[in-house]
Amino acid sequence: MAQSLSAPFVTYASDILAETQSGLSGSQIVKLCVAYAIEWGVDIPHATYPFSMHVSNKRKALFDNLMAFSETQRYRVLRALCEHQAIQKLDQVQKLRLTLIARFGHLAGEALGSEIDQALVERTEHWLGPFSDALSQYDQAIQKHASGVFLRNVLDDLRLALELLLVHPPEIRPSSKR
């Protein structure tokens, strides 16, 4: 059964995203929320920064703004906040993003695992560099996934890339550090 993106989860997310030391600033929160409010014609309670005196902190302001959006819109705003460049690499934010997608991905009509982590793809290509056969198969799989063609073959191409790598394993050298 699909879960509802309710107030308890929004409170949890707001605490992480607007955390005092490492979270988004009050002005960043307002800028992002206002952009979505204008796009969707939603009246949010905290559209200016600094916040009015009756708001105790930026976590509360973010919570109030998020709750003004519909559930689907709330999901999109939370997802965008998790991907904000200022905080996206924080462990708590990455965990929040994965939880958001896993529990509430139905709100965006996406399937878990439907997107590719580009940094992981680049690291894998780097690691496979010395193994041209495996790298070639891996690249074919990534291209097929990206273009949306021959999707049934993507997993086969990845499996073959792994097999080719295992057939030609890297030399194991003793470590000089002990």
If you had to describe this structure to a student in words, what would you say it looks like?
- The chain folds into 2 domains: 7-107; 118-167, no CATH class.
- The mean pLDDT is 85.
- It is 60% helix and 0% strand.
- The chain has helices at 7-17, 26-40, 58-67, 71-82, 91-104, 118-128, 132-147, 151-167.
- α2 runs parallel beside α3 (58-67).
- With 178 residues, the protein is mostly helical.
Helical content class: 55-70%
> What value does the Rg take, in angstroms?
22 Å
Unreliable runs: none
Shape descriptor reads: elongated
Structural class: mainly alpha
Number of beta-strand segments: 0
Number of helices: 8
Beta content comes to under 5%
Major sheet: size, sense and barrel closure?
none
Order of helices and strands: HHHHHHHH
**What is the arithmetic mean of pLDDT?**
85
- Give me the oligomer status: single chain
User: How many domains?
Assistant: 2
* Through-space gap between termini: 53 Å
How would you sum up this structure in a few lines?
The chain has 178 residues and is mostly helical.
What's the SSE blueprint?
Elements: H1 7-17, H2 26-40, H3 58-67, H4 71-82, H5 91-104, H6 118-128, H7 132-147, H8 151-167
Helix pairs in contact: 1-3, 2-3, 4-5, 7-8
Which characteristics define this entry?
178 residues; mainly alpha; single chain
